[in-house]
Amino acid sequence: MCKTHYSKSVRPRVRGAQRVRRIMVDYIRNDSGSMSLFVSFLLLIMLAVGGLGVDVMRFERDRARLQSALDRAVLAAADLDQTQDPKAVVEDYLAKEGLLQNLKEVKVTPESAGQENTGPLGFRIVEARAESRFPTHFMHLSGVDFLTAQAGSIAEESIGEVEISLVLDVSGSMNNYNRLTNLKVAAKDFIDQMVQNTRDGDLSISIVPYATQVSVPETIFDQYKTEGTNDYSRCINFNGSDFNSTQMLTKDADSAPTFERTMHFDPWYTTDRRDNGKILGDGGGLPVCEAMANREIMAFQKDATTLKNYIQDFVARGNTSLDIGMKWGAAMLDPSFDPVVDAMVAANEVPNAFSDRPAAYNAGDTLKIIVLMTDGNNTSQYYIKNDYREGQSNIWWNEEEETYSVYNPDSGWYYWVDADDYNAYEWQDHPYGNGDSHWDCGSSGCWEDTNEPEDGEAVRLDYPELWARTSLWYNVKEHYYPWMNDSSARSEWVYGVRGYKNDNTKDSRTQAICDAAKDSNIIVYTIAFEAPPEGKSILEYCASSDSHYYDVDGLEIKDAFDSIGSSIRKLRLTQ
């Protein structure tokens, strides 16, 4: 049989606790005065702590109000768009809050105040300090009669270092409805806004006018490895993969690619539109790549007059290639473009202050901006097929007599193009100028020597030279239509010579280069200027956010550029 046993130490503990309770009860019964004193002491402590909390709460409330008012005041005063005296702005803000008496100091950098402070230095720093003293309600019992709340704020508005690529549509449709005129006004105002509000050397602006192609200056073009003969203009036919990156490696870089040089040719005009035999673009014609100063990229400039004069000289013609414009705009912000800038600095084409540009993508406060504008959407981009990019053509040219001779390889005869009468039907056994005299001939033979001397000398043109002198359609109309079937002539000498990238392909390429730019932390603003739905869709896609996309008509384009300029400026509370 089991029995329960208790530990010997349990009962003494119980008895000890009971003894303590009896002693406390006896104390309270026998010393009620001491207890009252104890309770009063506790209440006094609680009152002091509570009063301290009230004073601290009042202090924090007043300090927060003072700090908030001061923050708002310096932010408003630092805004470069306002032309009032920054000190007066701070004082006005605090006066409206009933806190002007607390303002101790306002410092503005640059030191000048008022409207002149918005000048070319392009930044404003406003520092303010305020102080408030108020009497305590409870803490004075412990000898603290006042608490002092101090507030300080520093606000700065500045652009800092910025690299901007303005990618502007100068295609033919920009001639409609004063679009080109409105663009010029808006873009020039943007230039003024950015230059006037930037410290010298902090801002560089490049302008990329684009139509069917983008023409580049010789110094830029020479930094790249290219293939294809062309002595008259400088453009590049990019491959699809080129649009997956903002990078464009120069010829001295490891793994530098070889780019295809655009032929100097006109795929549109059916008439010569120039003096016979002259180079396209020199008096007429419309080559896809135009060798004109106002069609070429202007790189890394800071002088407002230089930039604005360049914009004023814009002319509008050609198709629309958003993808190529965006490719060059992004490439000029990529660090791989640095050797190009160095070459342009050495050639005195770019200010020496920009010798270290483009900055690295992770270079602190440097902003990289693209402004992409169009009034249309991507249209066909033409190029010369490989079989017609080099080698000898069937066309001979007599410079002195301004006469073409067309060789027919099937018959071995030459068709002479009469400069005065292109419908004259005349075949000879040699090009005009390469014989002592010519005969009366037909397509099957000659029957009489005319004894008429031939002046000048005929030179066989290679394909690059032929396309530089005559449009594709002019070549067919004047050189082949008179003796070939029209359909066969077009098939062989227009559609067989030229290829093209259609709008869908170019849309995909535009999206790819926009993705690459945004992935590289380039900020992309886009402006749809009276653009059709297809163009708007591409620009919405390319913009860094919804707020970076502008859909405008008429004079609203100026508002878009003004808004972009204000957005670029960084307004920040620095302390």
From TrEMBL:
Domain Putative Flp pilus-assembly TadG-like N-terminal: 33-78
A Pfam entry, by short name: Tad
Record-linked InterPro entries: Tad_N (IPR028087), vWFA_dom_sf (IPR036465)
Superkingdom of origin organism: Bacteria
Protein name, UniProt field: Flp pilus assembly protein TadG
